[in-house]
Amino acid sequence: MNRRQFVSLTALAAASLATPQVFLGVPMSKGTLGSFDFVFFTDTHLYPELNADGGCAMCFKKIRSHHADFAIQGGDHTVDTLAADRRRANMLYDLYTKTEQEIGLKVHHVVGNHDLFGIDTKSGIAPGEPGYGTRMYEERFGSSTYYSFDHKGYHFIVLDSIQPVETRIWEARIDERQLAWLNHDLESTGPDTPIIVAVHVPLVTGAASYGPFIKDPNQLIIVNAHEVLPLFSARRVLAVLQGHLHVNEVVNFRSIPYVSSGAVCGNWWHGTRWGTPEGYTVVSLRDGKISWRYETYGFKSIDPKNT
User: Fold this and answer.
1) How far apart are CA 63 and CA 279, in angstroms?
2) Average pLDDT, the chain
3) Interval 230-258: pLDDT, tens
4) Which of 70, 77, 171, 207 could covalently link to 106 via disulfide, CB atoms 3.0 to 4.6 Å apart?
C-alpha cells in the first residue's frame, strides 16, 4: 500500500485558517491534567534581507500577546546555514537569538535542515571543524536535537528528522539510535499520558498530491515513517506538529492528526505559500483534549511572489 492509499487528507483553505479545530482525544477526569495554550511556530528562515528580521520581530510580539505557557520552534531558524561560511552562520544565529527574545517565553527548539552548519560543500567548511553539522545548533540552544519534556501532565517529544548524507547533502529520516530512544521514551510513558510530538519534516502529509514543493522525495517526508508510526499506535498521541512545507494542512491517520503549520516566513518572505500566509499555530490543551488554530500577523512582503 502506498502513502496516498493510507492517508486521508484534510487541507485547510486560506479563508478558514483562523478557524479553531474540533477538540480531539478522550477526556480525562476533571483536574487530572492542566489546561493551557502553547505556540508552535516554524520556518522563520531569519536573515537580514527582505526585512525578515523585522517580520520575525513582528510575529514574535504577537506570539507574546497570547500569554501561552511556552513555545516550540519547529525548525529552520535561519536561512541556509548549511551553505554559509562561519562568519555568516554565526551572524545568522546571533540575529535569531536576539530576535527570539521578543517572545518572552520559554522556547523549545526543533532542528531543521537549514539549521545544520557547513554540510553543503559551498560553505567551505570541512567535516570535523568546530560547529560542523548539528554541533553549532546544539551549542547555541543548549540541547540535543531530540529530547522529551513534561508539562502539566502532558508529555512532549521533539524529534530530529535531518540526517546528513553524501549523495544529497541530507535526507529526512529518524536514525536507528533515535528510534531506539523513542521506543524507550514511549515505553516509559504511561499508556494514558497524553503525548504531543514535534518534528520538522512531516511524518505524514498529502503535499505530494497537490504541490511540487520539493523535487527530492527523500526531502519531502520522513523516508522511514513506516518505522516510526507503529510506535504511536499503543500510546495516547494527541497530535504530531510538523513544519518544513510552509503550508497549513491536517492529515488524520489512524486517529492521530498530523498538523503541518504554515511558516512564519510564508513563501520565504515573498508572501503566501500555496495560499498559506505568514503565521503560526496556537495549540490549546484542556483536560486531555486538544484544539488548534492558525494565526497570521499582518506581514507585508517588500517583494511579493505569492503562490
Assistant:
1) 10
2) 90
3) 999 989 999 999 999 999 999 999 999 99
4) 70
